[in-house]
Amino acid sequence: SIVSMMVAGNADGNSLPDTAAIKKISASGALPLLQWSISANPARQDDTATLQAIAAGQFDSSIYKLARQLADLQQPIFFQPMIPVPLSDSDVAVTQRTRTQYLQAWQHLHSLFAAAGANQVIWVWAIPATDSAAQYFPGRAVADWAAIQFTAFDAARYANQPAGFDSLYRSVHRLPLIKRSALPVMVQGLTAAAAYHPLWWPTAWKTIDTGFTEIKAMVIDAKSTANGSRPNAPSLQKQLGDVFAGAPLSAKWLPQVAAMEPGTSNNIVHSLPDTLKNVVYNKGLYWFRNRHTLNIRTIEEDIDAMKTAGINTVERRMPGFYDDKLQTVLLKKNLQLLPSFWLLPTPAVIGDSSRMKEEAAKLIDFIKQNKSTKNIIAWHLGEDRLYALSNQSYKPDYFYYEQRYLAWLSALCKAIRAIDERRPIVVDLHWDDGGQQRFQLYKKAVPEIDQYLLEADEKYPEGLKVPLSPGMAWGKVPVALWPLLPVVKKSATVPAWQDIANTNFISLNGLLDMDGRKKDSWVTVMNTWSLQHVAATALPETRILRPATFTEENETLNYHLVFKKNGAYWQDFPATDKNIHFEWYLVRVDQYGNTMFIKKISEGNPYIDLTMPNGPQYYRLYAEVILGDRVKMVHASLNTPLE
User: Fold this and answer.
1) What tens digit of pLDDT does each residue of 290-343 get?
2) Whole-model pTM?
3) Which residues pair with 190 in a beta bridge?
4) C-alpha–C-alpha distance, residues 365 and 144, integer Å
5) Which among 204, 238, 217, 251 has a CA at the least distance from the CA of 149?
6) For the chain, how far is it from start to end, CA to CA, in angstroms?
7) Cα separation of 536 and 51, whole Å?
8) How far apart are CA 190 and CA 193, in angstroms?
9) What is the DSSP letter of 604?
10) From CA 101, how far away is CA 86, in angstroms rounded?
11) Bridge partner residues of 562 (DSSP)
């Protein structure tokens, strides 16, 4: 259940929500929704002046007091800033100016809450009632939910129609912003009695379950009806009975988990060597329907090629089917091993206590069996699972799974340290704009972790310039970003040795493609880490030229490859060049850009006529330009330059 509270802020910070009321709501098993507003001049209702005042810091003292109050609650709370949007769609210049002011005000507000430590606040962005609503979206990093506000009048227009909610909401559902942002939607403002057809609410609920699945919450105004009267509680409960299948309106949500207590510092007495030239080698990991099967000969060929490139450490997900074969070759070739443990980081797995216990037991057993293996340099606990969880669940659910996972991780690290006092315990940290916040959370909850290996995010290149805190080191960094880092000549991790494809997993960031051909990144690694110089490929800079039209499902569009001639201008590849070979692939991705499966769709020509699949926004087009054992891989979305 969600209970909303309206709070009007003021410049002196004396108008704050009632903490006792918020705690009472939470104690009942409901979640508070704080709808907060502030005005630079309440008498004039000057929206532009309010935006300017927030962005300029005129309300900082008041806002910071509010943020500290919510931080001290140490519990999830929905927070909906009712920042005004001056409607000016008819004037493009005015719209652009107010859009900038609105986004600056939102960002400034969010930064004040972050500075106050209000990390369990769930940010609800109200979709503006304007044709240019998408232009006011502040971004996934600072908005957790989207809210659409209806009124009693809105519902009354469709009150007699069984499918009234469909008519009311469908235009919102069709907004491209709803699909692109992937935010959960909260419907607000509907009154229970405004829709008086007996099938209105049951039909609405079924429609949400089957068609409008982005709707995750509905806040109904129980204080008044369309004609101004107030329904009594029993009649309201009866009217909504079919919607909630008889559950009381105060039905409890997920159980609260106690806030983590700060751990003791371990002063970081363990660390990886600062000459770590590491490569991730998960080739053949999933043996079922895999492009690559491993045997001693294949492993030896790969390890020899790695040593030639100057690599001294192999990171592999373990335990696995080929562990013994790989370890035999690594010991023979005198290479270090960094075993990386993997856990499926879904809410279902994190929420399953028995499954998590089994995973911990499996890892502990592996460490006990391999404690005496000399070339193992650390215990790597895998990816940044809090980052993965944030992309698989929405707040407030995320906080529940976050705390369950951190408690499990802390217990696991303590068990590892009891077995092995010497080797460092390390974990990946996805280095995006939320990486610093997750780093502080990990440090507080799991002080047993010795070192964090930063995994660079191509969408956050500015993060490569941030000074690293003690306990951090650069880990997986795409080779294309190496020129931005000062340390790769001494230490870094290549994200993958070779591209991988099977029924469960796809990776296209290897130094070699699936057929073993060498990419430009292989040249960079050779010239950075080995003692020999390798010439760059003779293949020119290449791009996929997309058609200048919108993509529609089942429509056939032409894509073709172009190259930069003499580094000056772009032109088409000549179809008559028999030395260069072309291959085209279609890759399915999820809403976060993670690759799901790959399919070869054409080869031989530098162009392709492609029929758009269902949901073209979830596909990427890849092309390989091949000359001998060298290859250039380029990719593009199916959406067009007009996207």
Assistant:
1) 567 788 999 999 999 999 999 999 999 999 888 999 999 999 999 999 999 988
2) 0.81
3) 220
4) 39
5) 217
6) 38
7) 53
8) 9
9) S
10) 10
11) 543, 572
